[in-house]
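Researcher: Here's my situation. A collaborator sent me these components and asked whether they could plausibly form a single complex. I don't have experimental data yet, so a predicted model of the whole assembly would be a useful starting point for our discussion.
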Amino acid sequence: MMKHILYCEDSPEGILSAVHEAYTLRYGHADTEIRTEGRDAENMELFAQTTKVPLNQAHAASVRDALIRKIGSDAYDMIMYTALSNAPDKADVIYHFLVRGFANGEKTVDFYSDPYVARLRTIDRKVSRETCHWNEFLRFREHTAQMAPALMLPEGANMHTLMTSRITPEARVVVLIMPHFSDRFPEENFLIYDSVHDEAGIHAAGGSWYISQQIGRQFPEIAALTGVAETAEEEVERLWKAFFDTIEIKQRHNTKLQQSLMPLKFRVS
Amino acid sequence: MIIGENLTLEQKLEILGDAAKYDVACTSSGVERKGNGHGIGNAVKGGICHAFAADGRCVSLLKILMTNECCYKCRYCINRAQNDVVRATFTPEEVASLTIEFYRRNYIEGLFLSSGIYPDPEETVKRMLEAVRLLRVKYRFNGYIHVKTIPGASMEITQEIGWLADRMSVNLELPTTDGLRKLAPNKTRETILKPMRMIQNGIEMDQRVQQDQIHRIGVSNDGMILAGGNVTGTPKDRFRVRRLSAENEGMKNFMQQRPDGNMGRFVPAGQSTQMIIGATGENDYQIMSVTEQLYQKFDLKRVFFSSFVNVNHDSDMPQWGGRTILDREHRLYQADFLLRFYGFDVKDLLTPERPNFNMLLDPKCDYALRHLEKFPVEINRASYQVLLQVPGIGVTSARRIVAARRGGILDFADLSRMGVVMKRAVYFITCKDKMMYRINMNENTLMSYLVDDSSRFLLTEEGVQYEQLSLFDFGMGNIGQQVSGA
Ligand code: SF4
């Protein structure tokens, strides 16, 4: 049997567009695989027919709507989290999960013994965990915001300060952590820059937030800003360090416990 | 007394952070509150931990004393009146702005404020109230605040704090009145329990009002309590108003103090307390009985235990107990968990004749071994409560088992996938009426299988690692020591 590989853009919409395409082409789900572009694209398989599926918002939306209706919003969340992960097989996992979901409905998420469902749950959990970690461990720095205009903050936004944070996540978590910080800091201008995927979440004081792609390429000065501490900021950081260093109870010193609780990559300063 | 004059903010933070660190309750959990679109902050039910100190405790709150000046003479405390330590005092504004600046940078979930007592309880609490009010009103801070109140302050001012704080605590200090008399001569059980009771009543009244969905309360000329919003509602709502008005004077006074605005919840994350263990001669049975009473009679959310550290090098008092006291503290926390989530009573775990925990077995294994007649239990039939008594089955796995049973008959292979620790559970369960291995159900044999060594206490070069505790209580710094400050 000929194998069919659909290549799609590496985004939630891209993956759902390819799922739509797979249903249209009807090669048979067992013989069809979906991969995200950029992953081993060169590595063509000899006995496979490959197709490039362009992003199609309408197709993606129709799959999304059907999925929420038939498999439920829990499944939708899991699929979104998975689509934002860096798992190499995520597109195919989503596709085959959906095949099962459209056949079996809401209970599909509980098919622990199905390899695709299990894999989807694993990836989903990993991304959720990473999201929580960044909620806990990312740090903001304050800038006197000459950069605010370039950030397309709305007219009249309070330009006094801009808080920035630079993160290096495995999954594209910015979109997942923005709601938490927007709820927490409604009156701050803030920007969370993911330097791995070169995207930023931007929140304007008193307003809403949006995601901006390729910030590093379009506004290198903003990306650079997220790495520096201004003088006043060093002051606050010193205060924090003074507090932090004093609170250990020496009799209970336990570096191993500390390190096992806080993964290295989240350890700031 | 050495008064630190002209201390910088950084120096104050060092002194007053250091002085507060022995307080173990660092959790930021217990209340879920969305941001309100204004000001700054929200609160997350499970708590959020932002860093881990070098002793492995979670750092979630800016935990500081208002001042370390103190006119009391508690023998376990470095800040007692007669000690020559550098004294520092924050202004309320300093406390508030430090909290805000750290919070904005996502260093913390909020503030834990305690204080030495100076010049007297009332004045002390007044300054704390001012700091908290600045945060809530001036900075419109909507994040987590825990205030440790001072025994001996008036009920009015304590109550005012309750309307602004998420959690309050009054420390029991020591498990027995006798211990208190010896170690904290300026404090009495009475002055400690009084605010604890008041906070409990306040929480209860507030919850009742919440359930009735009465949003604003006023008192009419004839002394009736009026409930705004619902007064003109349906007849059912009016009935609620009448019921409320029949409450006692205390309720009326209490509700009158309720501030306007949506911050108006009274200590929504509940109250906690802590006591020092290992300083006076109490046994585990006494400590756990007191703990049980605190939960039952005062509705506490948490009771924390804090291993005694002889900070004053007092030759009449025990030295730092090292591994032994940390092990004991760990057992107490395990037992505390069994009381709160597993439906155990203290009398199941300890008796006056057997007053101390078995250091080789965790309390649940110990219980099972002493009640072998109850085991093994059949996984496919046992009730949730019975499942909870099985070593190796926790709250989550018991819940999963009950849910999964509806889908079919469970076998051993399914259990480890549900999070059951088979290594321990296997001796106490059957699936389809068969045990996994042929086991001699005899206390001594089982004991040798179940000895709690590397499975719980991971020995590291630095000392003991509380593996299980860190996981199930993630975000709650319940490994700690005794109080300083109040
Ligand atoms: S424990 Fe509190 S009241 Fe007692 S001496 Fe220390 S600061 Fe003062």
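Model: Some features of this prediction you could bring to your collaborator: The pocket of iron/sulfur cluster is lined by residues B 70, 72, 74, 77, 79-80, 116-117, 483-486 (CB under 6 Å). Chain B has two domains: 2-204+266-346, 360-467.
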